[in-house]
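Pasting as-is:
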Amino acid sequence: MQPAPAPRFSRTTPEISRPSAHAGQHTAEVLRDWGVANVDALLASGAAKQA
Protein backbone atom coordinates (compact mmCIF):
# COMPACT_ATOMS: atom_id res chain seq x y z
CA MET A 1 0.00 0.00 0.00
CA GLN A 2 1.11 3.51 -0.77
CA PRO A 3 0.20 6.39 1.51
CA ALA A 4 -1.99 8.96 -0.19
CA PRO A 5 -3.55 12.25 0.83
CA ALA A 6 -7.07 12.10 2.20
CA PRO A 7 -9.78 12.92 -0.33
CA ARG A 8 -11.31 16.38 -0.21
CA PHE A 9 -15.02 16.82 -0.69
CA SER A 10 -15.22 20.53 -1.44
CA ARG A 11 -18.59 20.32 -3.19
CA THR A 12 -20.33 18.62 -0.28
CA THR A 13 -20.27 20.88 2.73
CA PRO A 14 -21.39 19.16 5.93
CA GLU A 15 -24.37 20.40 7.91
CA ILE A 16 -24.13 20.58 11.67
CA SER A 17 -27.74 20.53 12.81
CA ARG A 18 -27.06 20.59 16.55
CA PRO A 19 -24.10 20.83 18.91
CA SER A 20 -22.51 17.70 20.30
CA ALA A 21 -23.62 16.36 23.67
CA HIS A 22 -21.74 17.29 26.82
CA ALA A 23 -19.85 14.53 28.62
CA GLY A 24 -22.34 12.81 30.91
CA GLN A 25 -25.37 14.51 29.39
CA HIS A 26 -27.17 11.23 28.64
CA THR A 27 -25.61 8.95 31.27
CA ALA A 28 -28.81 7.94 33.09
CA GLU A 29 -30.75 7.47 29.86
CA VAL A 30 -28.06 5.27 28.31
CA LEU A 31 -27.62 3.16 31.45
CA ARG A 32 -31.38 2.56 31.59
CA ASP A 33 -31.40 1.66 27.88
CA TRP A 34 -28.68 -0.91 28.62
CA GLY A 35 -30.87 -2.44 31.33
CA VAL A 36 -28.91 -1.22 34.37
CA ALA A 37 -31.36 -1.37 37.28
CA ASN A 38 -29.58 0.71 39.94
CA VAL A 39 -28.87 3.88 37.95
CA ASP A 40 -29.89 6.21 40.78
CA ALA A 41 -27.56 4.41 43.20
CA LEU A 42 -24.67 4.63 40.72
CA LEU A 43 -25.23 8.36 40.32
CA ALA A 44 -25.56 8.91 44.08
CA SER A 45 -22.37 6.99 44.85
CA GLY A 46 -20.37 8.84 42.19
CA ALA A 47 -19.67 5.68 40.18
CA ALA A 48 -21.50 7.35 37.27
CA LYS A 49 -21.74 11.06 36.52
CA GLN A 50 -24.66 12.95 35.04
CA ALA A 51 -24.01 16.41 33.56
